[in-house]
Design brief:
- By secondary structure, the protein is mainly α.
- It has a domain of 112 residues: Tetratricopeptide repeat domain (Serine Threonine Protein Phosphatase 5, Tetratricopeptide repeat, Alpha Horseshoe), CATH 1.25.40.10.
- It has 15 helices and 2 strands.
- The chain has a two-stranded antiparallel ribbon.
């Protein structure tokens, strides 16, 4: 019997699938094409329409590969890979959590919230999903919703510097200034190297026209992380407003050295430079930083019992408020 051309077309259509994916009856696997253009689901014992671009497109998605794309800052690729991973592993909350992080970094906050919520559906105690979904909500102007999630996370781990720092940020956005100050002070009492919390607390004091209070806090923040242009600029503002123009100039210059495109620091430097010649003041920033550390010890003694608490390292995301 001769084959009509249509038979050849059908055989040709199935040949790449057989060559690239092997036996059609193998267990269910979720696959993502190497070009991130096609997500294909192969169901055991059934036929389905599958688009493939190469044999490599049929490799199962591993958590490690998807995470590598995220850590490599290939966020769009990470979204695609974690999409495939979560389809194959729908009951793993960490897959949905990482999908949420990837979507957030890729510029899709609503998808991020959806993924974090799925992780929380699977594990209501998933603190990282609570805290990072709160960050997304803060960035998209929903501080009250963020506060609810932060408080849920704090109920799980009350002595969390990260949670307290985020709580301070939410309260700040809600104009709850005394409460925000309290949260930042408690965060610093738990971790006296939390420069994010120090910067934010110092900035609040600047905005409340308490520059003398802000100065030791920001001196310590810069001592911990001198490469931060925002910290340097805020320190410069506190120095300028307390009459230390030469020191303020040096802080603004340090901010610009860290980030030459930082327009606010450039404007501040131009503003303060004419006052340098008449400035006879002196300031010992190291002594001010030490003074603040003494203050932190007082907070620790009076507000927080840290004797049985292991303080985690600062979260790499950070929670900086910028004036």
């Amino acid at each position: 019997m001769s084959f009509r051309p249509s038979h050849l077309i059908v055989l040709a259509a199935f040949a790449p699938i057989a060559a690239g994916c092997g036996d059609a009856k193998r267990p269910v696997k979720t696959t993502v094409s190497s070009s991130s253009a096609t997500v294909a689901v192969v169901d055991s014992g059934t036929s389905s329409s599958v688009t493939t671009s190469s044999p490599a497109s049929c490799a199962p998605v591993s958590y490690a590969d998807a995470e590598a794309a995220y850590t490599g800052r290939k966020y769009d690729e990470a979204v695609d890979l974690f999409t495939g991973y979560t389809r194959a592993n729908p009951e793993n909350p960490w897959g949905h959590y990482m999908h949420g992080l990837s979507a957030w970094k890729a510029g899709d906050p609503e998808q991020a919230i959806t993924s974090f919520d799925e992780a929380l559906r699977l594990d209501p105690q998933h603190r990282k999903s609570l805290l990072n979904s709160a960050r997304v909500l803060l960035e998209t102007g929903r501080p009250r919703e963020a506060q609810v999630r932060i408080e849920r996370a704090m109920a799980i781990e009350p002595l969390s510097g990260e949670g307290l720092r985020l709580l301070g940020r939410a309260r700040y956005e809600l104009k709850q200034i005394p409460e925000a100050i309290d949260a930042y002070q408690r965060a610093i009492a738990l971790d006296d190297r939390d420069s994010w919390a120090m910067n934010n607390l110092g900035l609040i004091h600047i905005q409340q026209d308490r520059n003398d209070v802000a100065l030791p806090i920001l001196a310590r923040a810069v001592e911990l992380r001198s490469s931060s242009p925002v910290y340097q600029n805020n320190l410069g503002t506190a120095l300028e407003r307390t009459g230390h123009f030469t020191a303020a100039k040096q802080a603004y210059e340090a901010a610009l050295q860290a980030d030459s495109t930082y327009g606010k620091a450039a404007a501040s430097l131009a503003r303060v430079t004419p006052h340098i010649e008449s400035d006879t003041s002196t300031v010992d920033l190291a002594a001010l930083a030490t003074e603040f550390q003494t203050e932190v010890q007082r907070w620790r003694d009076t507000t927080v019992d840290t004797s049985d608490t292991a303080v985690a390292q600062q979260d790499s995301v950070g929670d900086q408020i910028v004036e």
